[in-house]
Amino acid sequence: MTASFDVAVVGAGIVGLGAALAAVDRGLSVVVIDRASEPSGASVRNFGHLCFTPQDGLAREFALASREIWLRLAADADVWLRESGTVVLARHPDELAVLTEFARSRGSAPAFAHGAGPARPEVELLGAAQVGALVPVAARSAGGAFLPWDLQVNPRQACTALAAYLAGRGVAFRLRTAVTGVRSGSVTTTRGPVSAGTVIVAVNHDIDQLYPEVAERAGIRRCGLDMLRVDAGLRAPLPAPLLTGWSLLRYGAFASLPTAAALGDRLRGEFPELAALDLNQMYTQLPDGSLIVGDTHYRGASVSPFQNEHAFDALLRLTGELFGVPRPRVLERWQGVYASGMSDFLIERPEPGVHLVAATTGIGMTTGLGLSERVVGGVYGSAISVPPTTALSTPVKGFS
Ligand SMILES: Cc1cc2nc3c(=O)[nH]c(=O)nc-3n(C[C@H](O)[C@H](O)[C@H](O)COP(=O)(O)OP(=O)(O)OC[C@H]3O[C@@H](n4cnc5c(N)ncnc54)[C@H](O)[C@@H]3O)c2cc1C
Fold first, then answer.
1. 295 lies in the same domain as 228
2. Which atom of ligand 1 is found nearest the CA of 180?
3. What is the number of the ligand 1 atom nearest to the C-alpha of 365?
């Protein structure tokens, strides 16, 4: 017999789980289907950095919506989250120039503040001594910035906790079940058909397996990243995600500033071997004290699974120099993969009742919940009230 739901979600990463949350918030029956037995995609391989502040355009809209949802999930779904903000370290005057221009561009009316009491500005410029007091870096700094509205989650815990919360609210999970085809009103899986009024396809880069023509039109490729978890022996904890000058070339609202062009020219000229790795030198600290270190970027229709030690060498050397510690002890290495496209998001409706959603640059943890809320809200309208309880969490078999 064909199982029947209002909404079928393909993919149990943060975007798919966000769609399931948006659907269950509207009183709909929902099934989430994933070929994996546990979260193993980009949503568990990232930094857990919810980097709302430097987003612009549509990414900023989704980021603003996501922030509220993440805070709610921390209260209701046992998602580990800290209201950390972000520290951006400027080691050179041209990096401080970008941050100063950014602070000026954001003015004093914080978009993140509603309901949050007295408003802090979105960007607080820091002197060198203030940076040194906040983060245990040894590198000389020209100053930096603090972005107080940003948050941090533990990527290894967030999806599991969210899935358990959704299961507690009646969402069905079909794991170790691959979707092989989608049509209006139905999904074909390796464990039989599922019928659903709405199908949300949230399979990240693997959209090219189910919808190759859409993926080609949107220029979707895979972006591979080299990542490490290390015991760095820092002299003090890292209380917030730490970005560097390299990060100022990546996020939309930094990279689009006129001063970022000169910074890019200098970094590429001074460090061609790091520029060739397409580096974003950044760090987050997990609750156990270990440090997530990254990252590099390489793109293609597929990415080589053979990670070059040269990239890890560079990341470890830079980490030692930045924090003034000997070469950190490596605890884990992994490769992350996400969809990379011509714009920041893929939002398509290839046929009635079928919606394709993906963050097509590396900001899906920051924006994915807001993206999914927008897409589901576009179909079903506003959410009904959400039960404010933590008692509903139920471990999902294979997701605990
Ligand atoms: C190394 C790295 C660091 C990052 N750092 C950050 C960060 O700090 N902050 C930030 O905002 N973003 C970051 N990102 C980006 C972010 O992690 C992604 O944008 C986001 O997790 C994508 O979520 P998703 O749900 O679309 O994809 P995934 O988490 O990859 O989930 C897709 C799911 O679809 C399933 N699937 C695929 N095909 C099928 C099929 N045919 N049938 C059934 N199931 C299928 C897969 O098994 C998978 O579980 C980073 C990404 C990486 C890789």
1. yes
2. 41
3. 11
Burial 118-154 (b: 16+ CB within 10 A, else e): eebbbbebbebebbbebbbbeeebbbbbbbbbbbbbb
Would you say residue 400 lies in a domain? Answer: no
If you average pLDDT over every residue of the chain, what do you get? 94
Q: Is the pLDDT of residue 149 over 80?
A: yes
pLDDT band at 384 (very low <50, low <70, confident <90, very high): low
Q: Which domain holds residue 157?
A: 1-85+152-218+343-386
Is 16 a pocket residue for ligand 1 (Cβ < 6 Å)? yes
Q: Is residue 256 part of a domain?
A: yes
CA of 108 to the centre of ligand 1 (A): 34
399 lies in some domain: no
Q: Ligand 1 pocket, 355 CB below 6 A?
A: no
Residue 308 CA to its chain's centroid (Å): 24
Average pLDDT over residues 321-347: 97
Residue nearest to atom 5 of ligand 1 (CA): 46
* pLDDT tens column, 103-133: 999 977 677 766 665 578 999 999 999 999 9
Shared domain for 205 and 107, answered yes or no, is no
Q: Is 92 exposed, middle or buried (0-12, 13-18, 19+ CB in 10 A)?
A: middle
Other C-beta atoms closer than 10 Å to the C-beta of 209 total 12
Ligand 1 centre distance from Cα of residue 213 (Å) = 21
Give distance in angstroms: CA of 14 to centre of ligand 1.
7
User: Mutate which of 174, 203, 281, 303 to test ligand 1's pocket (most atoms within 8 Å of Cβ)?
Assistant: 203
Q: Is the CB of 227 under 6 A from ligand 1?
A: yes
Ligand 1: residue whose CA is nearest its atom 3? 46
Q: Say if residue 357 is in the same domain as residue 245.
A: no
Considering the domain architecture, whether residues 21 and 166 belong to the same structural domain is answered as yes
Are 259 and 330 part of one and the same domain? yes
Q: Cβ contacts of residue 38 below 8 Å, gap of 6+? A: 160, 175, 398, 399
- Please state the domain count of the chain: 2
